[in-house]
From TrEMBL:
Species: Actinacidiphila acididurans
Protein's recorded name: Enoyl-CoA hydratase family protein
Domain of life: Bacteria
CDD domains according to UniProt: crotonase-like (cd06558)
One Pfam family named in its UniProt record: ECH_1
Cited InterPro entries: ClpP/crotonase-like_dom_sf (IPR029045), Enoyl-CoA_hydra/iso (IPR001753), Enoyl-CoA_hydra_C (IPR014748), Enoyl-CoA_Hydratase/Isomerase (IPR051683)
Family indicated by similarity: Belongs to the enoyl-CoA hydratase/isomerase family.
Length: 247
């Protein structure tokens, strides 16, 4: 009998449920399997009286590379991401993300959906979709709700890579990684009721936008993935060559 290693590992550290994305072979891609385990772990943390907040972190050099197209296909990936972002927003306990490596595509949606996020000096960020014939459709929801829309237009359109200082400046990331201990200490000092009630206020705009636009954006993303241009863009990426439209 063979057993499959978990894709999300769980520990507890003084009232903080630490959930670790542990699928480095595919750069912690948001497959339906990984997201299912993550949602289950979040549900467990929500029901535990001793847990004050959740810390979402990762193994390997990448926090998350976004959807797992090989495992789930173009239709399922965007829907899975909408489900996960809604789960995080509705959780009655704060979710803090720690990115110590690269964050790409849908992984940026996951990062922005968390209530608080920190990133290390070696972290890099890129909305690479436009270079592949795609768009950051679903990931744009929390990014545009919580961040600088004018700056997001540049990074969405150009696909350039940027670092932690810029991610903090535009609101994609809350603070550098060295702020993490103070953030967790503050959450440990807060009352469970106070945290839940306060989070309801901070996530209300995100939940409204997810309800209004999430399904349509997931469908738009699937249509783009199914196009000939996107197929060529993904092929070029996998073959490590420039797509034909690159000048």
């Amino acid at each position: 009998m063979t057993t499959t290693a978990p894709l999300v590992r769980r520990d507890t550290d003084r009232g903080i449920a630490v959930l670790t994305l542990d699928s480095p072979h595919n750069r912690n891609a948001l497959s339906a399997a990984l997201v299912g385990e993550l949602i289950a772990a979040l549900d467990t943390a929500a029901g535990e009286d001793g847990v004050r907040a959740v810390l979402l972190t990762h193994t390997g050099t990448t926090f998350s590379a976004g959807a797992d197209l090989k495992a789930d296909g173009p239709e399922r990936g965007p829907v899975v991401l909408v489900e996960l972002m809604r789960q995080i927003a509705e959780l009655p306990k704060p979710v803090v993300a720690r990115a110590a490596g690269h964050v790409r595509a849908g992984g940026l949606g996951l990062l922005a959906a968390c209530d608080i996020s920190v990133a290390g000096e070696s972290a890099t960020f890129a909305f690479s979709e436009s270079r592949l014939g795609l768009a950051p459709a679903v990931a744009s929801v929390p990014v545009l709700v919580r961040g600088d829309e004018r700056a997001a237009a540049r990074w969405f359109l150009t696909g350039e890579t940027f670092g932690t200082a810029e991610a903090v400046r535009i609101g994609l990331v809350t603070a550098p990684e060295d702020a993490l201990d103070g953030i967790l200490a503050g959450l440990r000092a807060a009352s469970p009721q106070g945290l839940a009630a306060t989070k309801e206020l901070t996530v209300a705009p995100l939940l409204r936008r997810l309800a209004a636009d999430g399904p349509d954006l997931a469908a738009r993303s699937a249509r783009l993935f199914a196009s000939a241009e996107a197929a060529e863009g993904v092929r070029a990426l996998l073959e490590r060559r420039q797509p034909p439209w690159a000048l």
